[in-house]
Amino acid sequence: MRKLFIQVIAGISGLWLASQFVSGIEFTGKLTTLALAGLTLGLLNYFVKPILKGISLPLRILTLNLFTIVISMGLLWVVDLLFTELKIVQRLTIQGLAPLFWTTLIIWAISLILSSFIRSKPKLSEPSA
After folding, report:
1. Closest Cα partner for 9 from 126, 111, 119, 123?
2. How do residues 19-55 score in pLDDT, each as one tens digit?
3. Angle, helices 97-117/2-21, rounded to nearest 10 degrees
4. Cβ partners under 8 Å of residue 104, min gap 6
5. Which pTM value belongs to this model?
């Protein structure tokens, strides 16, 4: 449950940060629609990404796990296509591979930072006699 929360927050904040700082990503809509896109990305990262990582294991081994970036970029691209085709978010556009790559790295970094801050509390063991 904690990992799902991290993925959703990383998706929402990563898309917002990328729209602010990465050229090629434009967002001019409401914050709720950006939150919906980030929520969708977080859910895809939580549920679909492990399946894709399992299927692409030979490629990940050959590329020393760099193919995971391609998987993440693909999921972000799917969110962009999904929201553009369904006309849910008309003002969120990712133009080109470079903005897609930098947005993926931003979301990865936010996820890494959040997962380091949100750790499970260690259980206190009973004192031994």
Report:
1. 111
2. 999 998 887 778 888 888 889 999 999 999 999 999 9
3. 140
4. 69, 72, 73, 76
5. 0.84
Query: Do the Cβ atoms of 28 and 121 come closer than 8 Å?
Result: no
Six token digits for residue 30 = 């409401």
d(CA 76, CA 95) in angstroms, rounded, equals 12
- Residue 48 CA to residue 45 CA, distance in Å, equals 6
Specify the residue for token string 């050959």: 62
- SS3 letters across 11-55: HHHHHHHHHHHCCCEEECCCHHHHHHHHHHHHHHHHHCHHHHHHH
**Contact (Cβ atoms closer than 8 angstroms) between residue 123 and residue 27:** no
